[in-house]
Design brief:
Elements: H1 7-24, H2 26-42, H3 46-74, H4 76-94, H5 100-114, H6 117-126, H7 134-142, H8 145-158, H9 160-163, H10 166-186, H11 191-196, H12 201-211, H13 247-275, H14 280-308, H15 310-325, H16 327-333, H17 335-362, H18 369-393, H19 399-406, H20 408-430
């Protein structure tokens, strides 16, 4: 069944998922921005702060491997609501942590909670959209993830001086809880997901009635997705079928490379720029500008990404290399240049992440989409853990050289992404029926 979704339903889905996606980045960005203040508050060493920085990614890396499967089995809506409640509650509690051990475990559990957000947000949006807008609308939704990451930068510059670092966790916890409660009543389930599960028959009939009131549905009618071949289960082995035996592991590597570079940027830029004697307000704003650049990049490039998919992302990887390499030089010579460099770094690096979140998920059929996306993000989170830790090993290097080396994952990513593009084109040429599902 290729749906022709009613405009009001699609607007509702897109609006809800924009809010969900933006909120998803609040806890991570809050912790990174608050780390210097947390270190002072608890008199922590840099090693202790590194553990707090990576614990979120540790939790997320483990959870996305099964939260995607939860979405494929029990529904995208249920997984999204559960994710938001879990990470919202434990982010809120973190505002009242009395030592770094409590902070570590609370952040770890919050990371576990957030694992279901992106895989299921991508799935529900792509599966509720007309085919011609499938990638575009999903990219628009996940493109707002960086915007949520920009909020803590502005909060730090305006509210933290008066209310302390705890205000970041209060906001980062309350907002997703409110979004989750609203989602219970207002977020529709994916149409394609409902078509695959008999228990949603009554709701599917109601959706069809709203979209096309004149359509008559026989009592024993069976809903199918005619443009996709489904798989019989959620076993990860199915992620390697249909010509994906090389593409799936390369996608995992691609996610790891981009997240390695991105997490280095967001973890170390505040520390390095503070060490370079830049004003705290400039440091906070540079982090916010990085995130805003990511949203602008995703929104401006969504049509191009829809059309050219992995080829477009390969070009973005190439362009990210000189931009990221220039941040250290810019930060030491001009505050204005620093903000410009971090904006364009976010434009490409986070634009890449929004693109691969969606294009990578669309490689898989509906019955595996959230699971496949979850494995991409789960394995990719290894890069988000390695990035800050590798940065710590090279912290004695000059700021300019450190950022030049930090561009290396994006150079490798360009090669890997182009390889995926060629392999996928060969796969689609051999099996043209798969092109419609993407």
């Amino acid at each position: 069944m290729e749906q022709s979704t009613a405009p009001d339903r699609q607007v509702l889905v897109l609006t809800a998922l924009i809010l969900v996606a933006a909120v998803a980045n609040l806890p991570l960005a809050s912790a990174n921005v608050a780390l210097p203040s947390i270190g002072l508050h608890f008199d922590a060493s840099q090693t202790q702060l590194n553990l707090v920085a990576v614990c979120y990614s540790l939790g997320l890396a483990t959870s996305v491997l099964w939260f995607g499967a939860v979405g494929d089995r029990y529904g995208r809506k249920a997984a999204l609501i559960a994710s938001n409640l879990l990470f919202g509650i434990f982010t809120l509690i973190a505002a009242y942590a009395t030592d770094l051990t409590q902070m570590f475990w609370l952040r770890l559990i919050a990371g576990i909670g957030i694992g279901g957000v992106i895989p299921n947000a991508v799935a529900i949006n792509a599966e509720s959209a007309p085919r011609r807008l499938r990638a575009i609308l999903a990219i628009i939704a996940v493109g707002f993830v960086p915007l949520g990451g920009a909020i803590p930068g502005f909060v730090t510059a305006t509210l933290v001086p008066a209310h302390g670092w705890q205000i970041l966790f209060l906001i980062g916890g309350i907002v997703p809880i409110v979004i989750a409660v609203a989602g219970i009543f207002g977020l529709p389930e994916s149409i394609k997901f409902m078509a695959l599960h008999e228990r949603y028959r009554a709701r599917m009939r109601e959706v069809v009635r709203r979209i096309s009131p004149s359509t008559q549905i026989a009592p024993d009618a069976r809903f199918v997705i005619e443009d996709e071949q489904q798989v019989p289960g959620l076993n990860p082995k199915y992620l390697f079928g249909q010509g994906l035996h090389l593409i799936t592991p390369l996608l995992w590597l691609l996610f790891a490379l981009n997240l390695m570079g991105y997490f280095f940027l967001i973890s170390w830029t505040p520390t390095l720029m503070t060490a370079a004697k830049l004003p705290p307000t400039t440091v906070a704003l540079s982090g916010a500008v990085l995130q805003i650049g990511g949203t602008v990049g995703a929104l401006l490039l969504c049509w191009w990404l829809q059309k050219h998919r992995f080829l477009a992302i390969s070009i973005m990887f190439v362009l990210a290399v000189p931009i990221v390499a220039s941040i250290g030089y810019a930060g030491l010579h001009s505050q204005g240049l620093l903000l410009i460099a971090t904006f364009f770094a976010g434009f490409f690096v986070l634009g890449i992440q929004s693109g691969i979140n969606v294009v990578g998920a669309l490689i898989y059929p509906t019955s595996l989409r959230a699971n496949g996306s979850g494995w991409e993000l789960g394995i990719g989170r290894i890069g988000s853990i390695v990035g800050p830790l590798v940065g710590a090993l090279f912290v004695g290097m000059s700021v300019e050289k450190l950022y030049v080396w930090s561009a290396l994952p994006f150079a490798v990513g360009a090669v890997v992404c182009f390889a995926i593009y060629r392999l996928n084109e060969r796969r689609l040429a051999k099996h043209p029926e798969l092109r419609q599902a993407q």
